[in-house]
Amino acid sequence: MIEQGKVSSYQMALLLYAMPIATGIVILPAITAKHAERNLWISPIVASLVGFLLVFVAYRLGKLYPGKTVMEYSIDIAGRIPGKALGFVFLFFYLHLGGIVVRQYGEFIVGNFFLKTPMVVVMGITVFACAIAIRSGLEVLGRCSQSFIVLLVLLVAAVTALLLPNMKPKNLLPILEYGMMPVIRGAVSPMDWFSSFFALAFLFPFLGDKDKGMKWGMISVFAVMLTMVVTNLAALFLFGEITADLTYPTMVAVRQVSLAGFIEHIEAIVMSIWILGAFIQICMHFYVIVLGTAQWLGLNAYRPLVYPLGFLLMATSVWVASDLQELSYFLGTSFAFYALAVRLAIPVLLFLIALVRNRRGASRTGRS
């Protein structure tokens, strides 16, 4: 097997949790508020249906084709040439998405903390650190997630608790003033974030306890949904209708933390912990690119590809957008449909074809 390391289903859940949350808690409240307005907290609940569906589909496909990732069983399901074509689509998408994630990270760090540092330096150092972790194997990423993601969850809970005195629950009302359509429009972008659970199709063969994969995958989706609801509610209670006008509502909220004139200016602490979560997020996208490329090329090892693909990932992160405004516009509009087509429509179609083929095979066996 190309990956010798194993992770537990719990570690997998933490890795999957990091993929949408690290950047989601920073920019998603503003994107969702543009459409859902004061009902932005309901949109993640609707969007989470995509995550639950993808966990089910990835788990069932993993059971139907044991020991194989989506790059391998796509060929079994669709045939060699169409399967290879689908594999290329997945690789191109994850390279593009990985570049977007790295760029979001760089924009956030430079825009809020290192104002005079060239963004390419910040992104380059991070990608290099991620490359070292990926060369160490999936097991190392799993262990890192156990330490880093717990800190990220505690950070969200602590910041929310510290901001409670400044919150105005009246900003929540009226609920569903214009019906469900604004909520559904606001759920389109979060659906993209929840479609990241398709990565389970790359991780499932390397689980040490595959029977628990479904349970922990569903728990991870629920945890992401709950975190998004909490962060969106916090932004709404603090900023009301102007949430949509803020680029980073979470960071603006953190700067308002003041407890007894003693606990203030905690941005540096927030950044240091958030970076750990973002590190896991970038590593996971990077790992999927490297593992998928190695399997698509039929290689026996993925480690020789880490640094060359790291350089390509850096180039992509510079290429994806000319500035933050263009990137935010893309993420808030067409990107969701692009992501859902690749990470939702294609996997569901593969699953349906696999079910039909297996039923036909079972019926033929029964007749014989």
Percent helix range: over 70%
Looking at CATH, the homologous superfamily is: Amino acid/polyamine transporter I
What's the helix count?
14
Q: What's the count of strands?
A: 2
- This entry's quaternary arrangement is single chain
- How far the N terminus sits from the C terminus, by CA atoms, comes to 34 Å
CATH architecture: Up-down Bundle
Structural class call reads mainly alpha
Label the overall shape. Answer: globular
Tell me the number of structural domains.
1
Q: In what range is the share of β-strand residues?
A: under 5%
Unreliable stretches: none
Largest sheet: 2 strands, antiparallel
Taken in chain order, the helices and strands follow as HHHHHHHHHHEEHHHH
Task: Give a structural overview.
With 368 residues, the protein is mainly alpha-helical. The protein has one domain: Amino acid/polyamine transporter I (Up-down Bundle), CATH 1.20.1740.10. It is built from 14 helices and two strands. A two-stranded antiparallel ribbon has the order 1-2. Helix 7 packs across helix 14. The mean pLDDT is 86.
Keywords:
mainly alpha, 2 strands, 368 residues, 74% helix
Short structural description:
By secondary structure, this protein is mostly helical. The chain has helices at 9-36, 43-64, 70-78, 80-112, 119-135, 138-163, 181-194, 200-203, 213-239, 249-254, 267-297, 306-319, 324-332, 335-367, and strands at residues 258-259, 263-264.
